[in-house]
Request: fold
Amino acid sequence: MSHETFMGEHLQVTRRHFQRLGLASAMAGSMPLASRGRSVGGQQRGASRPVPAGVRPEPYFTPAGEFQDVSRGKPLPHALPDEKKREVGLTRESWRLEVLSDPDHPARLKQELTGAKATALDFQGLLKIGETHLVRFAKVMTCLNMGCPLGMGLWEGVPMREVVALTQPRENLRRVFYYGFHNNDPTQMFRSSLPIGRVLEDPYDLPPVILCYKLNGEWLDSKRGGPVRVVVPEGYGFKSIKWLSHLVLTNLSHANDTYAEQNNDVDSPLKTFAASLSVPLEVKSGQPVPVSGYAQVGISGLSKVQICIEPADKPVAENDPYFLKSKWTDATLLPPPELWNSLKAGKIPPPTHGFDDSGKPKTWPMRLTNSHWAALIPGLGQGEYNFRCRTIDEKGQPQPLPRPLRKSGHNAIESLVIRVKG
Reply:
């Protein structure tokens, strides 16, 4: 699915909303302007980078081949020839997972799972666990330092805790760190980690951390991290390591993520934020202005999306970097789709975390996913205006609060210019 196809879907959803308002042609002439905005709110000013083609930050599921790719490695593991993939364990038939005690900070285990002892877990063994411990949930995959999602997926696998349990850990286990295939080059290793408490327990009704082998009901392909990757429901993408090959059980008391060494906050979960997708570049004076976009629903949930329209020459209020003193009005949060694209028959298969047996979301908007919004700005006089949108989370905190710092995830307020002509 191309970016144009996604925008077609978005316009269909929002068009129905505006038709119900008696504005059948409201979206005519609207243009996607996500690449034309300025991120503000204490994080970034000036022109933002264009949104890459293929990004679909919406609640519909992104086809595997249309995710934006930020893979690492030289050469990229998914680009290896098929014969090489089989040799290094990047096919379902050849995949093996070692589960080891950290030699520097050892956890006490009854047994390790190793290739040398022919006890490493293979793909069929992983599927066997899935017969009784299958987990499936919806999650948006987002990079910590990017202002747009990489794609939305329905991820399927088995809880990491079930695999850890195979080693029968006894004591001195405080953390799990894990990594994937990296061309047998230590300098290319990209690892992440979690406290053992998060692996063993699912707080706040979150899904489990999983060893994932299916995306949208299909086997996980190599480009998306197959045959097996980690998926951390509330985490940014760097927590969901691709091409998984090792779990290391450790008594280390702190994170040892690769991203920690690159001046990032590795413990921050997904943030809530809104962005625009369709805003007219120019409108006639007195003409209602339809606007629409999406919201990423982070760990703090989403209660509403709001918009603000102000004259471009209006001075920014002193000591108000997050525009808290501006006049904000509520947009409309649009309902979930009737059909879920990229899934068989457009249906959510049971059981799926957060959905009932009929495939309907138990709550909406759903945490860890995306949602559409739309609004109609009353007719404006001639001039230039700054358009902004923001979220209010379930605790009443406006974007970019409560975590406005850049290294803990991107959620700057977007600013676009609308020109009104006579």
